[in-house]
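pipeline/complex-builder :: batch 7 item 3
reading input block
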Amino acid sequence: MSQQVIPQALERLILDLTKLPGIGKKTASRLALTILRRPAGEARELAGALADLHSSIQLCSCCFTFSENDPCAICADYKRDASLICVVEQPGDLIAIEKAGNYLGHYHILHGVLAPMDGIGPNEIKIRELEARLSTNKIKEVFIATSSTVPGEATANYLIDRLLNRSILVTRLACGIPMGMDIKYADKHTLARAIASRSKTT
Amino acid sequence: MSQQVIPQALERLILDLTKLPGIGKKTASRLALTILRRPAGEARELAGALADLHSSIQLCSCCFTFSENDPCAICADYKRDASLICVVEQPGDLIAIEKAGNYLGHYHILHGVLAPMDGIGPNEIKIRELEARLSTNKIKEVFIATSSTVPGEATANYLIDRLLNRSILVTRLACGIPMGMDIKYADKHTLARAIASRSKTT
């Protein structure tokens, strides 16, 4: 195939799009061709949104979530329970928990999980910052909500160990059968965890 | 969920991304959060690629593919067979055929298929432009390579009818079993077409 068949500007966009997670070469081509077929204004709008992203968003200096203000809306909300901190891996996890709608404490974003093989130890994620918050503020409960993956669990266990000597309640997100799921289709590890964590009905 | 949990600039990017085909709200959130986590330079590069797209790419005035030059590299290539025109729906189809590597004629991009229910008739796609090319140039063969979908087939059949009275050979892309496919897994329509189009082996 002769090199010039795909215009350079299109090749560039396709290449940039393939750097995003879950976007392969075929999807990137399809997206780029769609953008090209549509009015130039739509591409400019998307370009503007991308260009503005980093300049208008920073990390909250308290909980380290992405925010336009510092402190973020959650840290600044006096109606929320400041004695309760939910520890999550990424800002996306905070958004998911906020959507659940029944958590009214504060957050702490680790910005990663422990991954010794990739050189990510306790100092590479925001664990010291969490301890600093625990030392200065009146925190009663640290609620660990890392993902139920191997690195997420390892990070949770490391945190539990590290928080052991403080007089703070440490809790974890419950694991079990997803709502609405037929137990026939639950994987055996989830089912084993749900059985071990079975709760009283009264 | 309080409105301010997702920064406005992030919301805007998520909304813009969901306008792309195959990108739902969850995928858009994942992409936007990934872009935000990565260095600002990557977002600026992608923004630049998007902003440059329409300004540096136009339609070739001969075959109507996307190109940085007019005529495009294919129309300008004197080594290609100018008496043979391959008719495709979209520029992406041209790229796919070029990748196959064994077609050495010219192209004509229809920029759509006939879809009377959506108000797309023969005048809405580049059929008159194709006829204009057939009238002025020495075209010997029109090779119809629209998709093997209902509207693609309908467009092909319409073109065949419309080109009937010209002394031009009209050919179509062969339909059959994909290379490497076990016929057990081929759908019955494809198999029926492959049987009807069976070819001599000598």
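note: DSSP finds seven helices and six strands in chain B.
queue -> next item
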